[in-house]
From TrEMBL:
One of its GO terms (cellular component) is cytoplasm. Its EC number is 1.11.1.27. It catalyses: a hydroperoxide + 2 glutathione = an alcohol + glutathione disulfide + H2O. It comes from Caballeronia hypogeia. One of its GO terms (biological process) is hydrogen peroxide catabolic process. Pfam families: Redoxin. The keyword ATP-binding does not apply. This is Glutathione-dependent peroxiredoxin. Belongs to the peroxiredoxin family. Prx5 subfamily. Keywords: Antioxidant, Oxidoreductase, Peroxidase, Redox-active center. One of its GO terms (molecular function) is thioredoxin peroxidase activity. The active site is at C55.
Length: 167
C-alpha cells in the first residue's frame, strides 16, 4: 500500500469534460495522475462507488461544502476517485453539484486504485473490484497525508479530518 513519503503512481485516469477547452475535448479526457499533480497540492479521496449511500450522502458532499476552506488552506484541487467510468462520474458530479469544487475522476479499470494498493474485492456484494475509502494530501506528486478507513467505517477520510491535518 502507498504510504506517506511515496510518489503517486503514474497511472492514467479520466475526467469527463462538459465544455471544450484548449487541449480538452468534450467527453472523457485521459491524464496521468502524477503529471496532473506536478506543482500542485491536491486532496485525493477514494471511495467504493458512485451513487452508493455513504459516498453520496456524506463523503462527496462534505468535500463540496469544504471546498473554500480547503482552497484557503492551500489546496489547488480536490479529486474524488472511484472505480467507475467517466460517464458515471460525470453524472454523479452533476447530481451532487460538484462543478468548480470537486473533480469527479474515473478509474474505470482500477489501475490507479490497484497501483495505490487500496483496492478491495466486493464481488460478493455484486460490485467487483473497488476502492477502499481513503483520503490523501499530495504535494507535487508526493503523499504527505494518508487516511485509510477501516472496513465499513467513515471516520478519517472526510473533509473535516483532512482539513485538521492542514492546520
Amino acid at each position: 500500500m502507498i504510504k506517506v513519503g511515496d510518489t503517486l503512481p503514474d497511472a492514467r485516469l479520466f475526467e469527463f469534460i462538459e465544455e471544450a477547452t484548449e487541449g480538452c475535448a468534450v467527453g472523457p479526457n485521459a491524464f496521468q495522475a502524477r503529471e496532473r499533480c506536478a506543482g500542485k497540492r491536491v486532496v485525493i479521496f477514494g471511495l467504493p462507488g458512485a451513487f452508493t449511500p455513504t459516498c453520496s450522502a456524506r463523503h462527496v458532499p462534505g468535500y463540496v461544502e469544504s471546498a473554500a476552506d480547503l482552497s484557503a488552506a492551500g489546496i489547488d484541487e480536490v479529486w474524488c476517485v472511484s472505480v467507475n467510468d467517466a460517464f458515471v462520474m460525470s453524472a454523479w458530479g452533476r447530481d451532487l453539484q460538484t462543478a468548480g469544487k470537486v473533480k469527479m475522476i474515473a478509474d474505470g479499470s482500477a489501475r490507479f486504485t490497484q497501483a495505490l494498493g487500496l483496492d478491495q474485492d466486493l464481488s460478493e456484494r455484486g460490485m467487483g473490484i473497488r476502492s477502499q475509502r481513503y483520503a490523501m494530501v499530495v504535494d507535487d506528486g508526493v503523499v504527505k497525508t494518508l487516511n485509510v478507513e477501516a472496513p465499513g467505517k467513515f471516520e478519517v477520510s472526510d473533509a473535516r479530518s483532512i482539513l485538521a491535518t492542514l492546520r
